[in-house]
Amino acid sequence: MQARAFSPATTRCRKRSPQFHKEYLLSYGIYIGRAHTADGLPYLAGYGDEPSSHWLEIAPRQSHAADATITVGVTPAAEMPGVLSQIPQVAETARHLRVSYTHYLGVPAPLTNGGLNEHGVAVRDIWSTSSAALIEATSTEQTGPNYSDLARIVLERARTAREGVEIVADLIARYGYSTYGGNSHIFADANEAWVVIEFAGGKGLWCAERLGETSIRASRPGYIGVIPAEPDETFLFPPHFISTAVDLGWYDPATGPFDVNAIYGDGKGRWEGVQWIEAEMTRRAARPEKIGIEDIVWSIATEKLTGDTAGYGQIVPLVEPAHPDLRVMWHAAIGAVTSPLTPVFMGMEAIPDAYGQHRYLSEEESARFLDRRKELKNPQVVCRIPQGIESGEGAVYSFKQLMHLAFQGQSSILPEVYDHWRLVEGQIRAELPDVLRSAEILLAAGEVELARKAYTAFSHRCMSDSLADCAALAAAAYVRLRAKGELNMTSVPVSPLQIW
């Protein structure tokens, strides 16, 4: 079935300079293989670097009609324009946890950088720029799934990380790929992970590298280096991947092996921050105690890596539980440097209202009202967020307040806040085994609803208590800074020095 375009193929938009991609936000992902961890589990962790609202949500398992379709791609208004199209939906999509957001370079919202599905496939989305030549070659009429579409579709359909790669490969081959300049994903399950890079240029170029139990891999941006001449069990790519570069005069096989980053990417290899965090985690893995959960938390929470651009944090233990409902994704409402990671269960009944979508930072909400007086003349002026939600607390806004207070007191308040959340996480981890055991007993007895009530109540309590702590910490921090005359009233924000 061919993709069906919504707008004429004659649509034209002015392309922007290929240099604009240097200003992109990156996001961050890190995979730790089971051979390096104290508990023998692999982990996928990271955060989304996005300039808009974020909210946590549960997407239920759904059945779809035989002729159902989904809308994918980008519009003519996107930074790198294209044409929206429809592609077939599958008969059933999997239940999954994800974080959604409302804005990035004109790509249609809602967007997602990934999450975890009921089959145990975890997804992270990380920027990975293509070469300037590939960006320049991208048509203004590009069609096919965008980066967010791919992340969501893999969560909806994949039963393994390898299948996630195959889904992306098939979609690009059939329908194309709508790019904002190049991108990458990490797909992971309990057995393996794959780094997948999708390239700009409209040539159907992608490449994947397998990560295993001895791997420690950070992506920011995503990278793949030297690959063999033919696909194997470690590297996958389409048949024309290398020959395209030969035909364009970008690669001569006589000069040596094919370096993906050098030929199709930015040519920079592993960036400084990636080298630093991979080396640090490798050092920790070499200790007798190996890498513990505290180390993995640190890898996405340290102020050397995590600041205001980190919209949220996630850690997924890639475990095979007794029941799919008991898969857990640890979630931080903002960057974990000043926010706790709390457990979210696959089978939870609902997400707390405070962690759902609010108007704060939501695209276009600054021009909307919780008022219907002008609705007949212009329906777009009515707020899309339920009034009841907007009447309550917003976790992202509250934790952001605390972050910026802590950043104004980097020598005193920041370490106190950081240490407090690590203590809270430790207390939650101490309670978690009993919660899981209780749920397992109930599920084994067929009491699915009782089990869901139990772990939903536990998760909600963790998130509610953390939000209350946040309010107390923020109030105390504000009073201290004000009394010391250290509130930053200039237009120049202060924050810890980050390596990236």
Report what the structure shows:
The protein is an alpha+beta fold and 500 residues long. 31% of the residues lie in helices and 19% in strands. It has 2 domains: 25-320, no CATH class; 357-483, no CATH class.
Mean pLDDT rating: 94
* Strand residue percentage: 15-25%
Number of helices: 11
For the largest beta sheet, what order do the strands appear in spatially?
A: 4-9-10-11-12-13-14-17
Cα separation of the termini: 43 Å
Low-confidence stretches: 1-23
Number of domains: 2
Percent helix, as a range, is 25-40%
The number of E-state strands comes to: 21
Q: Helix- and strand-based class?
A: alpha+beta
- Sheet with the most strands? 8 strands, antiparallel
Overall, the morphology is globular
Radius of gyration from the alpha-carbon trace, in angstroms: 23 Å
Question: How is the secondary structure organized here?
Answer:
Blueprint: E1 4-5, E2 28-32, E3 43-49, E4 54-59, E5 62-63, E6 69-72, E7 85-88, E8 92-93, E9 96-101, E10 111-117, E11 122-127, H1 132-137, H2 147-157, H3 161-175, E12 183-188, E13 193-198, E14 206-211, E15 216-219, E16 226-227, E17 235-236, H4 241-247, E18 258-259, H5 260-264, H6 272-285, H7 293-301, E19 310-317, E20 328-332, E21 342-345, H8 387-390, H9 395-408, H10 413-444, H11 448-483
Antiparallel strand pairs: 1-7, 2-3, 2-15, 3-19, 4-9, 5-8, 6-7, 9-10, 10-11, 11-12, 12-13, 13-14, 14-17, 16-18, 19-20, 20-21
